[in-house]
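Hello again, I could really use a second opinion on something today. I've dropped the whole record in just underneath, so have a look.
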Amino acid sequence: MKLPAQSIKKIAVFRALQLGDMLCVIPAMRALRKAYPNAEITLLGLPWAKSFVERFSNYFNRFIHFPGCEGLPEQNFHTQDLRVFIHRMKREKFDLVLQMQGNGTVVNPLMFLFDAKHVAGFYNNESYVASDLFLKYPDSGHEIKRHLALINFLGIKSAGTDLEFPLTQKDYRDYAELLIPITEKQYVVVHPGSRSALRQWPPKFFAALADYCVEQGFTVVVTGTNDEKLITEEL
């Protein structure tokens, strides 16, 4: 590995995104944990991701809320909150900060304000970093493989591309209370919503797909957030 395990005791992973994007980085986190079994790994992310860290406690030790910055649309931010966050990052004295947000155009300069011993991640033509710990961001390919490419670039062996989603006892209790009439391997979940309208498939297309699943003998379960109530009702 480019950074030996004995020299890396505190790692911060910067990825302030939503659930789908976070799940795509799990294979990379699995490999990271295997390479640094004794390191403290902290996720720097959006407020909701505290529960993500609790669910994936095999890979993450801590969560720190990133308050946002100019250029990242996921949340509103205040300049003073960002200043406080940067000062906290400096006090943390991380051995390694992994920029796994994307091509680095917005966040690469921010990563170097944390005063970590090492910073690694992605860059593009606009965010070039002269470091052998930075990989040019792949503009094609699956999101899972993009992040595994960074892990491999750092000399860390892959631990597979399988996704996972650990379930807790609370998950099982919550499911039991719903009393959903489904049978294992005989249902299909359809989630028609999206945080970005530009990436959202029209409900009538989801409806056609759901009709087909019903015709094949499956039970269709429609899911959505409160903000997606109109979409699910249309479906």
Summary: The chain is about 35% helix and 15% strand. Residues 138 and 146 are 6 Å apart (CA to CA). The longest strand covers residues 40-45. The chain has a mean pLDDT of 95.
